[in-house]
Request: fold
Amino acid sequence: MQIGASPVDRRAATRLKGQGCFVADVALRDPLHIAFLRAPVVSGVMRSLEFDEALKQPGVRAVHRAEDISQIKALDVKEVLPLRDAPEFPILAQERIGALGQPLAAVLAETQAAALDGLEAIGLDVEDVVAPDDPAPIAEKSWRTGDPDAAFAKADHVIEATIRHPRLFPAPMETRGIAVEWAEDGLTIWLSTQTPHRARDAFAGILGIDSAHLRVIAPDVGGAFGMKGSVYPEEVFAVWAAQHHRRSVRWIATRSEDMLAATQGRGLLTRGRLAVAADGRFLALEARIEAPTGAWLPNSALIPPWNAARILPGPYQIDTVDIETRGVPIAEAPMGIYRGAGRPEAACLMERLVARAADALGRCEMELRVLNSHPSGALPVRSPTGALLDTGDYPAALFQASKLSGYVDLLEQRDAARADGLLSGVGVALYLEPSGDGFESARVTLGANGRVDIASGSSSQGQARETAYAQIAAEVFDIPLDLIDVTHGDTATCPDGIGALASRGTAIGGSAVFSAAERVRARQLRGDALPITEAVRYENEGQAWGFGVYVVAVQIDRETGVPTLSHVTCLDDAGRMVNPAFVEGQIRGGFAQGFGEALMEQVVYGDGQLLTGSLMDYALPRATDLPSLALYKTETPTAMNALGVKGVGEAGTIGAPAAILNAVMDALAPVGIDHLDMPLTPSKIWTALQAAEKEKP
Reply:
């Protein structure tokens, strides 16, 4: 049996030894190096752009502006929300500057140093222009069921919450990068991407190139977290430049370039009202969600506001809702999907409302969640926004998490600490994690030598797909893992696929491998001659909804405002688990990022400039910052895919911030502090404590 076992990641040793191949490691024949002149203002107009001195610099071969790139088309945007007027997708800005860091011009030179010298010699004159204070939304959608007005009118309690999520920088270890090998018969493109096939099609469509002449390879990818789910203007320019100059080219972003111009995440403003009856029943939910969008829209730009709205009311049985969501342009970095992509925003709003409702009623939070969640045996059920919640037992998960965490003991310890004058709190979050939908492909071949070759249309940025897919095939064929080879991330050798997005890799990509392997195995058993090959384009029946409960205890130092997580229990249900160790790794990594949002991370602009432009200024969690986690699981298989698995890649980013936020606010409640925006930094908490102290009678 291979499914359910935990063999180690077969690529880990190679990468740990520094023997992986990332985009910067790809050897090119005589490449030109690219450097981009970037906008120094948030909003403005270019009055002049002079290249004469730049072209005189040793090693500089060309300098390009917007006029040099003709017949550029727009990047496709997934319209999960009706899109009114999509902003342009400028490869290089024309006269108008729409965002700080936007590429204005590009230098191509024989070395990277020469390209940077060329940048320094460009003459640029920019006039600041004030961006609109209240721009009109570019995308909107609403859901309304029942009679919300009547429900709120008869409610015994109306609970309100407002949560402003910080803008976050995804911070993958490997920055963006592209290497293009030019040849007479086409271009080979090595790209640090989550979506090699989609990138190939985007390059072809934007530049008017036959996709048959483009090969995109995603080699080892050093993390992505949504930031590499779409193609960028810089990458499109690199492909154009290779075609135009008939030479190979390379561009590797610096960390500061990524922090300035790569997509960021979160930043949503969510407001909610919850109508509650005297017995604790939730009667209606009202939610208003506003998501910032940037100067251009990546392919999945509208996913966060869509998810943040359509996941509501989450795991709770609320039939009457009034939910509106919209995307509003802002002259800052483009906003895109970041691990979780709307799921943490939905969970934080709903769980904060539940915690406040428990306070208003004087009820136990756990009991109130059990009372209002979909009862045991009720699923599948259709939510008010049309989502089909497939399988799960939410009350059972709450009871189990309460027992495993020692929830009653945590509350007693909290109360004892408070009696001693300490700031202590306990927070809970019940969350949902919808995984992706759509298709993935796989081609499985059983060779005459008994080896199995798997070519997957999915891709990987550290999720150990190579091992998990081999486990799936090993189970079907009942052979050792070392007889199975797995390839992915190459549009020339692998079937079409979507890629690594929305916790879809195992649920859909793994199901494609499973289905193709079963077909090959059936032919083998009936005596077909080897080799045998089967290709499958697998589409799931619908989204699989993972879920879980997180319980967090926190202590806050009155003198410094430093919060310390003294206890964390995570109970996650990801359906059938192919490799439990990989599931644990995903939860731990996701928790670290959720922890970062809750307590540390925030992109900050001031006076039109980026103040968090390096890792000296942007606070990422370190290993020593993170608490120990008590991890538990339940397994509720889904019928939405062939394997019965659910996504888990984003679980930690969803449950952690909601539980931590509730815990910190619980700790501060006795001193009269009922609202703080994340990140809940020591300085923010300390300032609030000082203000509360001054307000004492």
Remarks:
- The CA atoms of residues 598 and 678 lie 5 Å apart.
- The chain has three domains: 23-131+172-224+228-261, 265-435+543-694, 438-539.
